[in-house]
Every structure is written in structure tokens, then in C-alpha cells.
Amino acid sequence: MLNIIALLIGLALFLLMAPVFIFLLVMFIIYKIYESLYFRSKKFNQIKEEIEAYVNECNDLNQHIEELKQSYVILNKKDYGLA
Questions:
Q1: Mind giving me the DSSP string for 19-67?
Q2: In whole angstroms, how far apart are CA 56 and each of 34, 50, 59?
Q3: Who contacts 44 (Cβ-Cβ below 8 Å, separation ≥6)?
Q4: In 3D, which of 69, 67, 65 has the Cα closest to residue 57?
Q5: What pLDDT does residue 7 have?
Q6: Which of 19, 20, 38 is nearest to 30 (CA)?
Q7: What is the DSSP letter of 12?
Q8: What are the transmembrane regions (predicted)?
Q9: Residues 44, 38 contacting (CB under 8 angstroms)
């Protein structure tokens, strides 16, 4: 008798929670479709290209700064002659 009551309670909980799980599953599938469409869109690719260009410019600037640091070290040397 106790097993039947537990089974009925489990079945009732399942029937109450099934719509929630189905809703979450449908929302997840919709999100994945949206995600797939977004990452293939022109807007995303444009943003991605702008970021890549910006990163390349920053890397070039950093390289130029390092070259300037090296040239300053060379200019700052003093020649005291031979010992």
C-alpha cells in the first residue's frame, strides 16, 4: 500500500514538473537556433572584423613602443672611450 502511494506521489510530481521541463527544453532549443543564426550574421562578422582590426592596431602600436624603447637605450649610452 505504501509503495502505491509513493508511486502515485511520484507520478503526480512528474505530471506537475513535465510542463516545466518541456518549456525549458523548448527555450533551450530556441536559444540555440538564435545563437547559431547570430554567429553567422553579417552584424556579428562586422563586429568581429572591427575587433580583429583594433587588436592588430594595438599589437602594432605595442611593437612600435618596444622599438622606441630599444632605440632610446641605444641613444642613452655614453662612450667613455677604451679602458
A1: HHHHHHHHHHHHHHHHHHHHHTSHHHHHHHHHHHHHHHHHHHHHHHHHH
A2: 30, 10, 5
A3: 38
A4: 65
A5: 87
A6: 38
A7: H
A8: 6-34
A9: yes
- What is the C-alpha to C-alpha distance for residues 76 and 74, in angstroms, rounded to an integer? 6
Q: What is the 3 state secondary structure string of 57-83?
A: HHHHHHHHHHHHHHHHHHHCCCCCCCC
40-52 residue pLDDT tens: 999 999 999 999 9
What cell does 27 get?
A: 527555450
| CA-to-CA separations, 23 to 11, 28, 30, 41, 72, in angstroms, rounded | 19, 9, 11, 27, 65
pLDDT higher than threshold 90 for residue 58: yes
CA angle at residue 67 from 65 to 69, to 5 degrees?
70
